[in-house]
Amino acid sequence: MEGDAVLDELLELEHQGWTSLCDSAGADFYGRLMTPDGVMVLAHGMVLDRDAVVASLDEAPPWRTYEITDERLIPLGDDHAILVYTGRATRDGDEPPFVALMSSVYTRRDGAWRLALYQQTPVPERSGR
Questions:
Q1: Is position 18 within any domain?
Q2: Which positions ≥6 away from 11 have C-beta within 8 Å?
Q3: Which stretches of 4-111 are assigned E, i.e. beta strand?
Q4: Is there a domain that residue 17 lies in?
Q5: How many other C-beta atoms can be found within 10 angstroms of the C-beta atom of residue 120?
Q6: Residue 1 pLDDT > 70, yes or no?
Q7: H or E stretch covering 50
């Protein structure tokens, strides 16, 4: 049961994060959620520390829709866990959907889950679609 509760908590944080990206509030959300030394490893090959994430999200166009599927929890003890899932998001316009395998490493500090590492691996488009 403990694993299910942690999965639910971390999935809720991921949904809050994606909602903030749809509402152009990602800079504030991730500025609060990330650990001071946290990083994001993004699909286009960049590694951003927390300050760079906040600055980049201030300028990022919003996502219109998102979907989280195939979620899986990897517990690393009582206060650490990895959430792995497939994310699919779309923006307005003709841009194709962004689909990636995503991993979020969380650590519990002062009773709250904080994001220490987020990583994206793009899923290539299948031909014939």
A1: yes
A2: 68, 71, 83
A3: 34-41, 47-49, 65-75, 80-90, 98-109
A4: yes
A5: 17
A6: no
A7: helix 50-59
**In this predicted model, what pLDDT tens digit does every residue of 72-120 receive, in sequence order?**
999 999 999 999 999 999 999 888 999 999 999 999 999 999 999 999 9
- Look up the domain containing 115 and give its range: 2-122
| CATH code, domain with 73 | 3.10.450.50
Q: Does residue 83 sit within a domain?
A: yes
User: Does residue 128 form part of some domain?
Assistant: no
Rounded to a whole number of angstroms, the distance between the first and last alpha carbons of the chain is 40
Its pTM stands at 0.91
- Looking at the 3D structure of the chain, how many domains does it have? 1
Tokens of 105: 């490493």
Mean of the pLDDT values across residues 10-15?
A: 98
Taken in order 68, 53, 27, 4, the sign of the CA dihedral is: positive
